[in-house]
Prior knowledge:
mainly alpha; 5 helices
Amino acid sequence: MFKHWLRRLRGVFGIGTLWGAVGAGIGAVVSVLMSVSSGNPALSTLLAFCLGAGSLGFVLGSTFAAYVAVLERRRTVDDLTLRRGAGWGALAGGTVVLVGLAFLAGFSGWGAGLSVGYRLLLLASAAGSYAALTAGLAAGTVALAKRAPADLKAARSPDDSHLLGDL
C-alpha cells in the first residue's frame, strides 16, 4: 500500500517538474522579450520570471497529475483520451488560480477597492486563461505518455501495476 503511494507521489513530482521546466522556459522567453522591448536588459528580471513561471508550472503540473492519479486510478494511459486529459488540466488550472486568488484576497486585501462585478470579471478571466493554458499542456502530456514505448507502459510483474493511480 505504502509503495503505491510513493509511486503516485513520484509521478506527481515528475509531471510537476516537467511542467515547471516548461514554465521556466516560457518565463525566460517573456523576460527576454520584455527586456528587448524596453531596452533595459537585466539578469534579475530573467531569473525572477524563470523562477516565478517555473514555480507556477510545477504547482499546475502537480495539481493536474494529482487529479489524474486520483480520478483516473482504475484506467491505463491508453484508456485516457486527450479530451479527458485536457479537461483535468483545465480543472487544475482553474482550481489553482481560484484558490491562489482567494488566498491573495484574504491575506493582502487584493481587490478591496474594486466593485464585486469587476472582481468577478478578473477572477473569471484569470481562471479561464489558466484553464485554457493547462488544458493544452495536459493534452500534450497525455499525447507524450501515449507515445511512450510499450515496455515502459506494460507491467513488468504481477505486483507492478500500470494503472494511472499507481503512477
